[in-house]
Amino acid sequence: MAAELVNGATSEKLAETDWTKNIEICELVAHDKRQARDAVKAIKKRLGSKHPNTQLFAVMVSII
């Protein structure tokens, strides 16, 4: 679940940051440690993307 949210929030097709998904990720991570690990793993993967927008959105998710 966390990985799907991170992938949606960091999609290269987005024109701007999807704050709704970012907040959902934060709430999910705050309530479930396993989901937190999955989210961090997904964010790290998205940071390695070739698309600059994906990298930018991954950074935005990680600082929230």
From TrEMBL:
SUPFAM superfamilies: ENTH/VHS domain
A Pfam family the protein falls into: VHS
Molecular function as annotated in GO: phosphatidylinositol binding; ubiquitin binding
BP term (GO), one: protein transport to vacuole involved in ubiquitin-dependent protein catabolic process via the multivesicular body sorting pathway
CDD domains: VHS
All copies of domain VHS, residue ranges: 9-64
Family, as annotated: Belongs to the TOM1 family.
Protein name: TOM1-like protein 5
